[in-house]
Amino acid sequence: MANLSMTVNGKPVTANVDPRTLLVQFLREHLRLTGTHVGCDTSQCGACVVHLDGKAVKACTTLALSCEGASVTTIEGLADGTALHPMQEAFREHHGLQCGFCTPGMIMSAVDIVNRRGHDLDEKTIREDLDGNICRCTGYHNIVKAIAAGAAAMAGGSVKDPVPPRQAAE
Amino acid sequence: MYAFTYHRPATARQAASLLARKEDAKLLAGGHTLLPTMKQRLASPGALVDLGSCADLRGIARKGRNLVIGAMATHAEVAASPEVREAIPALAYLAGHIGDPHVRNRGTIGGSVANNDPAADYPAALLALGATVVTNKRKLPAGEFFTGLYETALEEGEIIVKVSFPVASRAGYAKFRNPASRYALVGVFVAKRGGEIAVAVTGAGEGGVFRWPEAEAALRARFAPKSLDGLAHTAKGINSDIHADAEYRAHLIGVMAKQAVAQATGKA
Hints:
The complex is a heterodimer of chains A (170) and B (268).
Chain A: E1 2-8, E2 11-17, H1 23-30, E3 49-52, E4 55-58, E5 71-73, H2 86-93, H3 103-117, H4 123-129, H5 141-154, H6 165-169
Parallel strand pairs in A: 1-5
Antiparallel strand pairs in A: 1-2, 3-4, 3-5
Helix pairs in contact in A: 2-5, 3-5
Chain B: E1 5-7, H1 12-21, E2 25-28, H2 34-39, E3 47-50, E4 60-63, E5 66-70, H3 75-80, H4 82-87, H5 89-95, H6 101-104, H7 109-115, H8 122-129, E6 132-135, E7 139-141, H9 142-145, E8 146-148, E9 151-152, E10 160-166, E11 170-177, E12 184-193, E13 196-202, E14 210-211, H10 213-221, H11 246-264
Parallel strand pairs in B: 1-3, 2-3
Antiparallel strand pairs in B: 4-5, 5-10, 6-7, 6-10, 8-9, 11-12, 12-13, 13-14
């Protein structure tokens, strides 16, 4: 067992963990933050994406102990009280989910895309950068729409009337 | 995963000492090969020495005619680095097309090179650019470093500190990637440095990364995609698996080589 301390969603946490504990296990089983999901467990599907010191990573392929002293943000850390984060709101508004299993990872990836590439995202950029997130329900049409809208909303734009992604690309 | 003890040194020197002292210890860089392998119980090190806090293994800098990249530089850092984009844009392009964005935030150049996966991207760049792998003990030219499938010249207790790339006048990389794993089904890196031309192929060889001398000779006459017209790589010694057979991969080598030259000459 080894001592671990990090900041999760702004709160300091400490624990004594088996070195084998993955970040996603630590979040789900120790902290009971079950919004971060385990899909494939082989770093393919992206259901476990969280932000580690501001960068999107797959929590199923990161040891909890590797995150000593780091700051982690999970899907639970995005909303401001009862007010959804603009990206969450955009997913709701644009029906960017069906079963919802991949959604936490999709949203954490989406916020990461905005952090890296800004608020004016075209469809191609979004689709390329969603390379590490898999949705098994339907496809990506509404997810891509939601991310374009959410990106604009994060800049203070309107979520309800986003520029359609295809048009933005032209 | 089988149990292991975990160690987090602050310097490469401390890491080397832990590696020597601990029974059956392995280095952990980005962990995107080692951790999945441990989950499958294909590897079961007794100790992990995590290089994540070794500040002396990080950093990217232009030093005269060389571009020097710390072993723990992530693929995302290499892809976004202004120094890399200025000195060897093809290397930034390569790093930006490894795995997916999340993988690129964890995976490192040192980890990729040390693992020498036959379908990894970096080995082709190191070989074509004539890079030098600098360890805590010595300097190894890329041509001597990669010795076979998942095999390198690294000895027990040796740690990659940085990789030094001589800046090429022209370079290009093209890969046909496996859509699921994003590894190279075939990847070709071409580099021109003065009159020296190198063509390195990854993803295809039974023994891992290799150079293609016939293509190099053809490009020496004229460094243009057209110079490779009619040149086909033999299927002998090329991998066959469920993703592609040897003939298909051999054909792709020619196609990717042309695309890489087109990129290097600004005609892509």
